[in-house]
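Summary of Year 1 activities. Much of the first year was spent building the evaluation harness for sequence design. The harness presents a backbone, in tokenized form, and records the residue chosen at every position. We chose the following record to illustrate the format because it has been used consistently in internal testing since the harness was completed.
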């Protein structure tokens, strides 16, 4: 299993160049705002989720983007794809920000940014009370999922305000070519005490920290947001693979997803991820 960490930026365009990346202890991560890539900042080659990717064998790296839409409901995504030129302008104008991460084929990977960065993206759009995400690579895009809701009226029919702390994604390959990015529903059987269980889209549910607990400041808070409790207030994405590689070798990491049903995704990655953001910044330095 592998964990990568990164930064989201929805404001100033970071002066980063993917071609100048270096790795630290098997961590390879490129992080850019979606707006940065769309406005001509270099994000080329292996670290561009929209670039054509070759047929892959087990152990090869490939790039996935995770796009955050502040103020965007599930229905607002429609068929919008961050890799389609015509759609990029609309997404950029709407304040969408994106992370890119690079797992290895058939490794289960845990990926996260930080609670502060997710909050910054949501706050970048005045009045936004919901935030949704899609995963994308090349012409392939997942369905959207809710990751933040700050009011009960953020979704038609109502929703418990909360911050989703775990989602699972399966990348399906056929002969080494990416075919689908599909969410896997783990449900809420492993939620920590005090967490909510909220619907995130498509009839799926996930664990979420409550807005009350995650927004608390001072000495009388239920969560210690200076420690590992913060993982209950930010997204951890578990990614695994299924199908076959370019040599027709079966990919089996998706079978591990079922085991996560017995554990909290954020908890399972907690120890490994304690220094992930720091490592990512070192890799980009």
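For this record, the design step produced the sequence shown next.
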């Amino acid at each position: 299993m592998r964990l990568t960490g990164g930064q989201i930026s929805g404001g100033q365009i970071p002066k980063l160049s993917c071609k100048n990346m270096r790795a630290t202890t098997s961590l390879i991560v490129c992080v850019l705002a979606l707006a940065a890539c769309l406005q001509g900042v270099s994000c080329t080659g292996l670290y561009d989720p929209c670039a054509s990717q070759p047929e892959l064998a087990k152990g090869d790296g490939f790039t996935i983007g995770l796009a955050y839409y502040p103020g965007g409901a599930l229905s607002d995504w429609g068929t919008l794809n961050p890799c389609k030129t015509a759609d990029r302008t609309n997404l950029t104008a709407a304040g969408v920000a994106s992370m890119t991460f690079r797992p290895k084929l058939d490794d289960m990977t845990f990926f996260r940014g930080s609670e502060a960065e997710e909050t910054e993206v949501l706050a970048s759009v005045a009045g936004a009370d919901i935030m949704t995400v899609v995963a994308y690579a090349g012409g392939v895009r997942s369905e959207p999922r809710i990751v933040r809701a700050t009011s009960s009226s953020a979704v038609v029919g109502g929703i418990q305000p909360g911050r989703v702390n775990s989602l699972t994604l399966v990348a399906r390959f056929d002969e080494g070519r990416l075919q689908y990015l599909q969410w896997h529903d783990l449900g809420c059987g492993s939620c920590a005490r005090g967490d909510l269980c909220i619907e995130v889209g498509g009839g799926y549910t996930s664990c979420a920290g409550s807005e009350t607990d995650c927004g608390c400041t001072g000495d009388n808070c239920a969560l210690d947001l200076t420690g590992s409790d913060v993982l209950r207030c930010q997204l951890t994405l578990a990614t695994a693979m299924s199908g076959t590689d370019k040599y027709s070798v079966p990919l089996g990491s998706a079978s591990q997803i079922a085991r996560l049903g017995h554990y909290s995704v954020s908890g399972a990655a907690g120890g490994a991820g304690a220094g992930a953001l720091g490592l990512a910044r070192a890799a980009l330095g």
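The first helix runs from residue 34 to 38. Quantitative recovery figures across the full test set are reported in Table 2.
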